[in-house]
């Protein structure tokens, strides 16, 4: 589902070249649950940005669902992101003025423009909230009327809206207490059992037990699997 071959990514800082990723090789199979760990500065965000088609490597090849993304332009990358990847973040990144349901509808508006009626959109958004196990009674609540765990469920529902095969999660438990974090991980595990490929970047050791595989990064290298 995801493959990186000899991927290198550098940043220039003043006169210095920083290797954020050095010759990284990584294969993630369809339906796998992979956790990526490593100290701050080890290249986790850079790796996530490359897998998420938000950034391209300096050298090496990246394949997402058999599509080589190196040579795609921004418009094509956006399309891959939209169809293949759902993003979940530490800070939920919900739009405060929109309800839970409207937040989940948003990607459907971008993707389908006028081809999906409002009614169809709401139906899909409700189905996604249900998959994220948020009680329907919260559908019309704004984010600030919801707990952290509930907000993360809305964010996960939004990530599911375009029915992507891959979920990329950046510290999904980072703003939650350990009990709530555990529940969110159980939800991600359930979605993985139903067929989603799940990649989680985290500092949280408690997250590792949900993984089929844990990858450790250090100084831009995979040091242990
Ligand atoms: P992590 O997510 O594990 O903390 P990052 O991928 O953010 O690691 O960073 C890897 C390395 O690349 C670090 O040394 C960091 O300082 C550097 N880096 C990341 N982004 C940039 C940037 N935009 N400009 C310069 N250096 C960067
Ligand atoms: P396309 O191939 O046209 O980009 P999809 O294959 O993703 O679209 O979706 C096809 C149809 O499935 C859409 O018209 C929409 O009504 C419906 N659909 C899309 N996402 C979901 C979802 N998460 N849950 C249920 N139905 C969906």
UniProtKB/TrEMBL annotation:
<dbReference type="GO" id="GO:0005886">
    <property type="term" value="C:plasma membrane"/>
</dbReference>
<protein>
    <submittedName>
        <fullName>Phosphonate-transporting ATPase</fullName>
        <ecNumber>3.6.3.28</ecNumber>
    </submittedName>
</protein>
<dbReference type="GO" id="GO:0016887">
    <property type="term" value="F:ATP hydrolysis activity"/>
</dbReference>
<dbReference type="InterPro" id="IPR015854">
    <property type="entry name" value="ABC_transpr_LolD-like"/>
</dbReference>
<dbReference type="Pfam" id="PF00005">
    <property type="entry name" value="ABC_tran"/>
</dbReference>
<dbReference type="InterPro" id="IPR003593">
    <property type="entry name" value="AAA+_ATPase"/>
</dbReference>
<dbReference type="GO" id="GO:0005524">
    <property type="term" value="F:ATP binding"/>
</dbReference>
<keyword id="KW-0813">Transport</keyword>
<dbReference type="GO" id="GO:0022857">
    <property type="term" value="F:transmembrane transporter activity"/>
</dbReference>
<dbReference type="GO" id="GO:0098796">
    <property type="term" value="C:membrane protein complex"/>
</dbReference>
<keyword id="KW-0378">Hydrolase</keyword>
<dbReference type="InterPro" id="IPR027417">
    <property type="entry name" value="P-loop_NTPase"/>
</dbReference>
<keyword id="KW-0547">Nucleotide-binding</keyword>
<dbReference type="InterPro" id="IPR017911">
    <property type="entry name" value="MacB-like_ATP-bd"/>
</dbReference>
<dbReference type="InterPro" id="IPR003439">
    <property type="entry name" value="ABC_transporter-like_ATP-bd"/>
</dbReference>
<feature type="domain" description="ABC transporter">
    <location>
        <begin position="2"/>
        <end position="225"/>
    </location>
</feature>
<dbReference type="InterPro" id="IPR017871">
    <property type="entry name" value="ABC_transporter-like_CS"/>
</dbReference>
<keyword id="KW-0067">ATP-binding</keyword>
